[in-house]
Recover the amino acids of this structure.
């Protein structure tokens, strides 16, 4: 695949909206090794996986999303993104949400 070849040849980082599977990461690692590189050279970043929405107007559960963080870190992701609008619907809640999210991410991964 073209993305794999370009990542191996030029990549310094990988940002994935849909996190790659363990099999895809293994394929990337093998391709990096074959090219004389190591997958650890890539900064791995991804949108933190979340459970699906249950309806058109509902919000997601932050704790359910945070539960995915340790697996993501174990796969080599060092940067995880959260889209606040999936969890809150009032801009006045943003500061508290961010503090809570960072605290919970830290607690779940360290």
């Amino acid at each position: 695949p073209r993305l794999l070849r370009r990542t191996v040849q030029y990549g310094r980082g990988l940002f994935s909206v849909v996190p790659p599977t363990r099999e895809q990461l293994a394929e990337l690692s093998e391709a990096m090794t074959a090219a004389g590189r190591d997958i650890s050279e890539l900064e791995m970043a991804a949108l933190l996986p979340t459970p699906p929405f249950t309806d058109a107007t509902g919000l997601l559960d932050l704790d359910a999303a945070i539960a995915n963080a340790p697996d993501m870190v174990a796969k080599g992701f060092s940067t995880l993104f959260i889209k606040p609008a999936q969890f809150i619907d009032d801009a006045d809640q943003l500061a508290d949400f961010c503090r809570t999210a960072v605290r919970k991410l830290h607690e779940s991964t360290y």
